[in-house]
User: Fold these one by one.
Assistant:
Number 1:
Amino acid sequence: MSDLLRRLRARGWRLTAQRRVIAEVLDGEHVHYTADEVHARAVELLPEISRASVYNTLGELVVLGEVTEVNTDGRVRRYDPNVHEAHQHLVCSDCGAIRDVRLTADPLKALPEGERFGFQVAEATVTYYGRCPECAAANAGPA
Amino acid sequence: MSDLLRRLRARGWRLTAQRRVIAEVLDGEHVHYTADEVHARAVELLPEISRASVYNTLGELVVLGEVTEVNTDGRVRRYDPNVHEAHQHLVCSDCGAIRDVRLTADPLKALPEGERFGFQVAEATVTYYGRCPECAAANAGPA
DNA sequence: TCCTATATTGGACTCAATCTAAGTCAAGAC
DNA sequence: GTCTTGACTTAGATTGAGTCCAATATAGGA
């Protein structure tokens, strides 16, 4: 059983076949699937799993803090199981490939007090956009 | 005529009543409307304007570089006419209010070469999340 | 094993956004 | 001023992500 499943079980999460395969699909490095991609992969392991279960389970994992939602293209939400290491995202503006990246400076420090408008600022997300090596090689011209 | 309309006209943009009211709606500080909000406001100035025209025009303004798309909640796209001053966004995690903010450090500098995975990194967007003064006053408890 | 609270399912539904085909009109030519 | 034309706008259909719901199934404790 994965660490994820062990933690969930310890928190009283009822362990079903559906949740098990979703956890399995989310296991790995640089994983940022959409709900539909999670569903497509889960179906290969458990053919009868429904889209509603995938949405339900992903939503619960987000609430439990085991997965974060990321949105890098303004269109589809993606799910990132890497919550145990502070990181940001680097996105290829051509193909949409996503890599996890670690920063050398805390972005919160770049927001001066005079720019906070009285907000209690808690968190910052940074997304970098550029062209990945594969897209740069495939197309030397402009995006 | 606003600066925006003057610039668009100089670029050969055909000036229609619909485009005029959309440009008018987008005029102002800290404006981050959704397409539907732009449509609702445009309808007050030009009752017969269609949603498709709003989407078409916003899309063209984005391509022309006169407006940028922002997505702060992972759901709806918003349109930001403030493209003449480099800025990032500060979002209230309770009510969704958005403010433009200027940073003291370039976020690109926080991404070391060893974390670039061979990407040609061009751009970074930073979004800060926190609670605005109004929401903090209205609800002293946790979000 | 039985029971019950909880999870899953399929399908209908919502909402943002896009597409289509037909009608309209801004602006340059005369 | 009017004509012409291709770009623009329109209403409505369509797409696609995501949500909701009532009926059914089941995990896991008693």
Number 2:
Amino acid sequence: MPSPITDLHAYLEAHDLFHKTIELKRGDYLHHAGETNTNIYYVAKGTLRTYVFVNDEEQVIRFGYQGDYVAAMDSFINGKPTILYSQALRKCTVRMIRKTEYMAQLAADPELARLWQKITSWMITGQLEREIDLLTNDPAERYRRVFERSPQLFQEIPAKYIANYLRMTPETLSRIRSAIPPDPST
Amino acid sequence: MPSPITDLHAYLEAHDLFHKTIELKRGDYLHHAGETNTNIYYVAKGTLRTYVFVNDEEQVIRFGYQGDYVAAMDSFINGKPTILYSQALRKCTVRMIRKTEYMAQLAADPELARLWQKITSWMITGQLEREIDLLTNDPAERYRRVFERSPQLFQEIPAKYIANYLRMTPETLSRIRSAIPPDPST
DNA sequence: CCGTTTTCTTGAGCCAAATCAATTTTCACG
DNA sequence: CGTGAAAATTGATTTGGCTCAAGAAAACGG
């Protein structure tokens, strides 16, 4: 199942829905918990992590790479303050879409409505994968599952965030990686 | 945020989209892995669990109570074989909706389209909650979080399935429950 | 209502991953 | 480049939840 994100992006470009461009430096936030931020952001360049505090610990929910869309999705959906943080892991260029403009277009154009239906369905199946990852008991198996699905993840992003995303400590991830014979083809 | 499920249900009743009624006895399956099942089921009576095999272990993904909708959502979304099992935990009466009929109605009626948009958004925020639950390290804390959100869960469903849903053994759940002083108000 | 099966509870021991700690390596930035 | 800070690695130790086991309680179905 190919990601419908590229179709969405083509549509948004064609209909000129990007509102402004934002430059972030390492450590900057796109949004933070407590803030009501209903925008959608397109990552033109760079990488971000989206995390949440659970019991005083940061927990990575997802990463945003070049070409991805990032949002405080809870805030976008219900218009209330988000619980999420999205932080630049390096210099980023992101382009913003305002919810009001997006929703107006969504109501006006059935083509976008169909596209959006695909996107949300795709997000739901993606979350099912994520849930299965998190339900996997063995840390090495969690690593393997995610690595097979998104090997590129491990190029750009510091291991400590990946470890956190995989629900393990950086020490455990390091030991797992050293235990697995390196693939000569990569 | 109130669940938009009741609105959906009212709509489906009003437009007579239920195709047939199915009776299940304890242990029966609504669908199983490998099968392509694109139907949506309304739980008129009873309770079910939806689970998936991960590394030869059953892992509960969600429960379906009276008034809920249950589906092999991966199959519904992409039309391919599901990886999910939905099994009756007791005698159930479920009513079926065929995807083809549902999709036809979705394409024909903007009211249903709007309703469906709400439903999918609501599912996405629900999944975010679930993800946070699963990322919580302390088992007692996972229990507390889910219990506060859905206390009714612990009435109908055998503890061993709840434990599995909470990513812990039945022994651990039992010990957590005996450690927490019972609430006299309930 | 009774008998059988399933589930729950409790205890003991173990083990894998967390924690703690120290060094090495890498990387960002001047 | 070179320097300082951040990240990764490696080892030692601890510990919390799992496994195994046995008995008690509860629930199902006839």
